[in-house]
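Many introductory courses stop at the sequence. We go one step further.
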Amino acid sequence: MDREIHNDAAWPFPRYANHIENDITPKDQAIYVPSVSPSHAQMIYDGIINATYWGRALPKGVTAADLNFLDPANKLFRISHVMTSAGQAMKQKKPCIISQRDRENTLVICDSGGYQIASDKFPIEDDSDRKKVLDWIEANADISMTLDVPTGPVVKNPTKYRFKSTDECLSATMEHLRYFHRNRTPGKVRFLNVLQGNTPAEADIWYKTVKQYKFEGWAFAGRLRHNFYELCRRLLIMWHDGELEHTTHIHVLGTNELDTAVLLTALQRTLKKRTGYDIRISYDTSTPWRSLRFNQMMTLPTFEPGRMVMGAVDVPENKQFRDSPLPWPWPSPIGNKMVMGDYCVTGSLTSSLFRDRLSEVLLAHHNLGALCWAIATANRFFDIATINNKFQYGRPEGSAVEVIDEIFKSGQMATLERYKDTTFNRLRHSQDFDDGDSGRYWDELF
């Protein structure tokens, strides 16, 4: 059996390597990491180096460089963390804003391409294929998922899925783990061991099997990743097993809901307070880009006692808005500078639409900025509420924030069980057993 035992003298990563010094997200908050379309990242870069690339003017007062949200000097809008997928980005040979980023002030989390591999879009036949994935990850990422085979499609698409059971998914994943464990470059990339499973019993077996390979963190995937009871249960088990001792990062795949965001922040703070481990929690989706295929734009968040959600509506798109000076209807860093004529143009992608590739990039930029603002606002509301204990918004989540601390203070599974029905099962996603991982599975948009 391959087994790696860490000790402090040999530990290759600084204890606080999970924080960027000038990170715009407070270091004690869980951080949203957008999963960026590779083609989108390439178009932004091409627009910066080629003054005629877009073929038309950008919104008034906006430069091509302003669209690069990974530039730490960007005064319009910037983020510090971004996700890319090896399963898609490996096919892209041209430079982009991710490959050309400022590596001192940004952090790339890489998905291994598990879904593309499992669906035969990116087949892994032997170690030579695994080597290509590992080499690409180590050349481009700071943090990465290990190579895994998702279990959700076993339930959702059993007739079309190459793997017919969770056992088959686990067996293939173990082959990948063995290769990554033996052949990685120590200290090059922090790897997160991916947890799958369609039921609690399957998730237990998966965890017990993959934990023999010691990496720097964990990624929660599959059908149980939204269930906060299951998330807390797994973390309690990990803590008791000593698996959190050298964990610097935990990632939850395929989520950006406002209620989940505040709960993950509470969980990150509680883990540091009660276990002493400074673990950064992140979560991702490709929502700003996936919304393009439905022509959806982000509006404003709704904060009510029973729910917190981000709104989205159809972009008002037709020929009447071509060259229109009417302002873009919803606020965001780029939206505040746009008019409808910046989006609706004559040179369209198809005969039935009135937008071009710049329109798509502007819409995605708006969606990203609006979503990041909503997540930040939700966290601010909860920061205040946790001080005065008055959760005017998201009361089910407020109750969960309080009991999460109590659970990890006690360190007992019995405390968690006591709140399963009264608190966790009342959360919006507590019974959401979709196969999820939506941030992983989007197709190319262009």
